[in-house]
Amino acid sequence: MPLAPGAPVVQVWVDGQLFQADRALLVEHCDFFRGLFRSGMREARAAEVHLGALSAGGFGTALRVLRGERPALAADDEELLQAVECAAFLQAPALARFLEHSVTSDNCVLLCEAAAAFGLRDVFHGAALCVRDGAPELRAQLALPEARDYVAALRPSRYVALTTHTPAPGFLEDASRTMCYLDEEGDAWRTLAALPLEASTMLAGVATLGNKLYIVGGVRGAGKEVVERGFCYDPDGDTWRPFPSPHQPRYDTALAGFDGRLYAIGGEFDRTPMSSVERYDPSAGRWSFVADLPQPAAAVPCAQARGRLFVCLWRPADTTAVLEYAARADAWLPVAELRRPQSYGHCMVAHRDGLYVVRNGPSDDFLHCAIDRLDLATGQWTSLPGQFVNSKGALFTAVVRGDTVYTVNRVATLLYAIEGGTWRLHREKIGFPRPGSLQTFLLRLPPGAPGPVATPLPEL
Q1: Over the stretch 316-353, which tens digit does the pLDDT of each residue have?
Q2: Dihedral (CA of 40, 41, 45, 47) sign
Q3: pLDDT the model gives residue 409
């Protein structure tokens, strides 16, 4: 039976199962259906489409993703393989992105090899990075020579730290104005690169995007004069280059690299908190304003989970509010709230479906940190057992690499293993040898001789 012109629903038979699908949705997101319905062939006018090459489970997952859902994928091989096969056959970028953001240490080997076999390059690359940064036994599980060779050629991510610096006079050599990375095998912090003399990391936004480091909005002097230029570091060439600052001068801003863009979120100017947010497109070299935060805020904790960008805002009555930036709608959407006494937060990190909000503990002792976990799938909060003491726990800054949380201060660098939603102290390394507040991140460094060991410097 022919399909009426412009009919909104099409019936799709897959592996003996019937699906009712929105025609416009299929055309928008799948190159296969776009080509089919616009081909002028008899099949393009049929009321039913038969897809004999796919599984019903994979197609059902695809439809849910295209409709904006985030289905939980089981760790079993069959469901993941069906989803990969469907993404490749339908040529559905949205499903491929969903798979890329679903990579974990539990499924990275399977997704790496399946994506290689079906030609999903971005999923293959993302899964390979997860394998490279994971335990050595993950690499040993790879069977495809193509996957093994690709993973072996990748560089592991390194834990990098940067302390507080203001612009330096050209005649004054300051050995402390350097970025350092953790040499885990040698248990030492090594010098990576010196900061440009004009760069300031005091109250600056620091983030990575495309394996490059960006610094925005530092200040100089007691009057907090905003440094006009931002700086970008490329580890591949060991080079710095300036790039434009946001239209609105701002310091103590949160900087996030998300979906190929930089976001400068909130901050202060003239000692006044702001709600404005700007987005930087590296390919165009331009900043543009996007939706404001619902309230003025500085030093906003932010994290990314499953390809989504989240921030934490602190509100009166001891309330922690988590919001998500919806790029297509250009809006900040409420996700969850948490009521805790003295809920001033230090940072937020993400692991799989969990957001971990690190804040001061339930007493007046600000050396104690408490951690609450928000399950994004259920919307439920849970408190992690125990408290962490910052004199050793180093939880004012944290970064997640694989299934490990890296934290650091001058006393120690602590690595926590995330297991079942809890943190367990896994390893302890040497503390950061420089004074000042720390910003930490991950970079994939080029091969070569390690930098010199960063020598300890006295407190100012």
Answers
A1: 878 889 999 999 999 999 999 998 876 566 789 999 99
A2: negative
A3: 87
Cα 429–chain centre separation: 24
* DSSP codes of every residue in 107-165: THHHHHHHHHHHT-HHHHHHHHHHHHHS-HHHHHT---HHHHHHHHHSPPEEEEEEE--
Q: What are phi and psi of 435, to 5 degrees?
A: -80, 165
Q: Which CATH architecture has domain 9-153?
A: 2-Layer Sandwich (3.30)
8 Å CB contact between 182 and 413: yes
Q: Which residues lie below 8 Å from residue 189, measured CB to CB, with a gap of 6+?
A: 161, 180, 181, 182, 183, 430, 432, 433, 453, 454
* Contacting residues for 163 by C-beta, under 8 A, at least 6 apart: 176, 201, 432, 434, 435, 436, 437, 438, 439
Is domain 157-444 in CATH 2.120.10.80, yes or no?
yes
Phi–psi pair at 28, nearest 5 degrees: -65, -40
**Could you give the CA distance from residue 246 to residue 278 in angstroms, rounded to a whole number?**
7
All structural domains of the chain with their residue ranges: 9-153, 157-444
Amino acid 28 reads E
Q: What are the backbone angles phi and psi of residue 198, rounded to the nearest 5°?
A: -85, -10
Ranges under pLDDT 70 in the chain: 1-7, 40-46, 75-76, 170-174, 342-345, 361-367, 386-395, 457-460
At residue 363, the pLDDT reads 59
Instruction: Give the pLDDT confidence score for residue 370 in this predicted structure.
Output: 83
> What's residue 456's pLDDT?
81
Closest alpha carbon to 111 in 137, 135, 136, 130? 130
Sign of CA dihedral 421, 425, 429, 431: positive
Residue count of the chain: 460
pLDDT at 5: 47
Closest residue by Cα to residue 90 from 163, 152, 12: 12
Question: Which helix (H) or strand (E) element contains residue 27?
Answer: helix 23-29
Q: What is the C-alpha separation between 302 and 308, in angstroms, rounded?
A: 11
| Model pLDDT, residue 94 | 96
Q: What is the pLDDT of residue 385?
A: 81
Angle made by CA atoms 106, 112, 117, in degrees to the nearest 5: 140
Task: Report pLDDT for 173.
Answer: 59
Tell me which residue has tokens 């055309």.
Answer: 27
Tokens of residue 331, six digits = 């809006």
What H or E segment, with its residue span, contains residue 354?
Answer: strand 354-360
50: helix, coil or strand? Answer: strand
CA-CA distance, 253 to 249, in Å (whole number)? 10
